[in-house]
């Protein structure tokens, strides 16, 4: 079934080598090569390749370019904080880098002019390829950059092709002003069988290939439902393989004793899914733990340490902020004024307020409301000192509160409380404040 | 300097010379005092004591951080090792290369972390790698700023690596350090790093290298410290991590995240695709309350420093810490302020130094100084208590006063030497009692002892009662700990105490042999008393129970109980002898700083209250009696802004400007003049004054213009006239 790579101008041996290096991606490689054409042919001006993470986009492209020795440059757009850096890298590696002298903040036209200048001295015999990895970043740079690169061939009048790699579909790129449509090439997700085939290729030198294939089968059985990222899977395979081999090392099982091996490794893989895969514990720590074995002193993951110690008034400020965020402002009177009279929940509220405020998320509130609630929940008289106010801003830097809106920050700032109900309940418990009694949703 | 130029322009005047003498702190200190010699001395004392305290703090800090810094260094060392072994082996080829990351949880007070990070980067530079960059969120709003900061620090550090090659390096440095507006990319850093390694590889054999250079491993890691992770823009951080991970094969990068809240912040800020590039390990530092306890222990609960703070000041400082900021640095700063204020405000603080110096100082006292001593309240109380002859002598003879002062100083010093060990003992004994009647922390007990006679308080009573119920092994353990506490730096009195305590412990241990008998005889008594309980009416039952209690109290106690009572009585006597509050000691003003109001005013300012006071009671700041007014009335003579302020307090959220203006006219035209005369036309002068006062009020943030109604302004504060 695999489509054979065929292109005039390249030797059979070279092509065979390439097709060995791109397992399960022969079809895409063939399509790409067909687009490239013979070395000195003009190719399509711009090609857009998309597909999920670790689906072999850059691998296939780079293998082709490298193995078939086409002049090319690879630039990761995320690294180019300014267009100037991008231009510099492109020109620097396509031409003699010493000749590249760009002005301080070059524009696209500077780039094109310089390209043509350099090109006149050193014109292309073969097609030049510019590969822009993570091309989605280009959208955030200056508006003419992406359309410019798409028709670079036309602009510089040179045999050049721009290849854009991205995880996002082209529809999200198309600028409102319109542009040259690149040729799109999709890399579909690997199927389970394909993943298996690829992963099984790097078997451990001291064990048989069959055993490793069997191990990969188990691994995919656990992880395939959550992770199709080849890089991650390979990492996990490497982390857990020593554990898998343990019974063999100890002589407790034969290589053929598959059931035993499966029983040995499966619980560990399941645990790995909850810990090391989520980066709750580091790979180092995970390996240490596997080595120690037996003792089930489990490592506490990052999210286990949710407790935050705060100064006394900060706690109350946070509680007040939470109440202000989740209670409708009109109910404040009911909670914080002593003789408020009876207010019945159903008649009192408008329709949209009947839905749970906790489902809708925090609402912004002004500073005065925060302070008013603060003064009524805190149990002693507090002077409005400078440090009370600075505590509010330090809560903002700790990202427990966020500031909403950018106008009028001086006179009447607005905030939102971003902590969860569990968090605030834990905080309220430490100061002996029954927060549920003050929350409108829990009446 | 005048110029005779017709056209407008910009002229540069270079300062001719520094004529103005810059005033040093000492000049400010002595400025305006009647006795400059005395103030200079006090200033020197202040400086030397602050220096001592600072060193102590530094030591405490190093001690506390040692553990976490060591484990961090170990982690970084481990990751370096893994970098070097990466090239070989199936496993390392297979594994995704993650960036080793230490998540360092440091507690919510971010400014305090600076000290920790400083010592961390110093340590790293010393022992692991010269390439350490630490970045703060506020400097790194965008990715290029972050890149530039990191590269500047890393590549700058490389120059410091081999100082002996400074000449060769200097040319290299200029051409390679990121210029202004230069595009920083990790590619450049990568080239630089490889160049550097090649250089050192070529150079190292056969060339004498400075010892520091050879300490580092062959490929020192590049450590990037993110001081305040929470404040970073998540997008910037994500991009940076993604870029770094592309170079991790060539550059041994290590990250340190400084986290103020909880480690789950990382997961909140970074999506899985980014956090999967990191190999995160968690390091949790000591909680700041423990840190504070240690600092108090080393700085306050010691007789090492002559300077002391009173209970009230300590309460204020601890209050600021617990209620407001959790900042140990601020606490120490507060202590420094108290120290400074003490030496600045109290002329007799020249005596606040080591015992010998103080004694020598007293001998040189002039007549005025002696007068000052006699004016101290504690000395006045002391004099009153003396015999009439002694009183006369004290009041007439300077020399006699000097002798007495010397004796009192000696007494006070020995009081301090005994006070703290006994305080620690009492804390040891009471801190394990249920419900902590005398406080969980020693500082609470300390405050109690500083303020009153501790044995008169109810808490002390209940603590003693609980002590009288302690089981034997607990008592012995506590007493043994007390002996350990008392051992170092013993005075004569303490030696005796230790002796007594050891005696008691020995006796308690002796009891072991006797215990069997006592239990049996007690059992008999119990059974006999149980028989006497018969069915009677309630009154009789109560009566018999009362009687039984009486008899039990009077009945012979077990030897352990006797000994226990004896022990507790002894401890009680110790407390009564040594834990007298400092106010009862003559001359205590020399050592104790007690103005808690000053400290509070300086450290926990209330700007809003001051503004409100100024506006509602102008006479308070202007110090003019004429402005005083009774009740809620507004004086006509008050500044315009005060009148405006008073009037605006009577309004709701929106204020009609015209009504306000009318009210203002009425107030200013109050008496004497006929208000009707101005009715026809608006007094322009007053109008202008009104407008100016309103804009001043807006500037102070009390009102702002609103779009809801055109001729209205909105109030930004709440509360009515009663404030």
Automatic annotation (TrEMBL), chain A:
Domain Orc1-like AAA ATPase, which positions?
21-163
UniProt domain ORC5 lid: residue ranges: 212-279
Listed under GO cellular component are:
nuclear origin of replication recognition complex
Is Nucleus there in the keyword field? yes
Q: Has the keyword Nucleus been applied to this entry?
A: yes
GO biological process assignments? DNA replication initiation
**Which molecular function terms from Gene Ontology are attached?**
ATP binding; DNA replication origin binding
Keyword list (alphabetical) reads:
ATP-binding, DNA replication, Nucleotide-binding, Nucleus
The protein's location, in the record's own words, is:
Nucleus
Origin recognition complex subunit 5 C-terminal domain span: 310-439
Matching entries from InterPro entries are given as: AAA_16, ORC5, ORC5_C, ORC5_lid, P-loop_NTPase
Record's subunit section: Component of ORC, a complex composed of at least 6 subunits: ORC1, ORC2, ORC3, ORC4, ORC5 and ORC6. ORC is regulated in a cell-cycle dependent manner. It is sequentially assembled at the exit from anaphase of mitosis and disassembled as cells enter S phase.
- Biological role: Component of the origin recognition complex (ORC) that binds origins of replication. DNA-binding is ATP-dependent. The specific DNA sequences that define origins of replication have not been identified yet. ORC is required to assemble the pre-replication complex necessary to initiate DNA replication.
Q: Which family does it belong to?
A: Belongs to the ORC5 family.
The name of this protein is Origin recognition complex subunit 5
- Organism, by scientific name, is Paramormyrops kingsleyae
TrEMBL record, chain B:
Main localization, broad class: nucleus
| Protein location | Nucleus
Give the similarity note.
Answer: Belongs to the ORC3 family.
Q: Give the species.
A: Paramormyrops kingsleyae
Q: What does it do?
A: Component of the origin recognition complex (ORC) that binds origins of replication. DNA-binding is ATP-dependent. The specific DNA sequences that define origins of replication have not been identified yet. ORC is required to assemble the pre-replication complex necessary to initiate DNA replication. Binds histone H3 and H4 trimethylation marks H3K9me3, H3K27me3 and H4K20me3.
Q: Which residues are in the Origin recognition complex subunit 3 N-terminal domain?
A: 1-351
GO molecular function list: DNA replication origin binding
Query: How is this protein annotated for GO cellular component?
Result: DNA replication preinitiation complex; nuclear origin of replication recognition complex; nuclear pre-replicative complex
Which InterPro entries does this chain map to?
ORC3, ORC3_ins, ORC3_N, ORC_WH_C
Origin recognition complex subunit 3 insertion domain: from which residue to which, for each copy? 362-595
> What is the recorded name of this protein?
Origin recognition complex subunit 3
Self-association and partners? Component of ORC, a complex composed of at least 6 subunits: ORC1, ORC2, ORC3, ORC4, ORC5 and ORC6. ORC is regulated in a cell-cycle dependent manner. It is sequentially assembled at the exit from anaphase of mitosis and disassembled as cells enter S phase.
Every Origin recognition complex subunit 3 winged helix C-terminal domain range: 608-718
Keywords, A to Z, come to: DNA replication, DNA-binding, Nucleus, Phosphoprotein
Signal peptide range in chain numbering: none
> GO biological process annotations for this chain's record?
DNA replication initiation
On whether Phosphoprotein is a keyword of this UniProt record, the answer is yes
Question: Which Pfam families has this protein been placed in?
Answer: ORC3_ins, ORC3_N, WHD_ORC
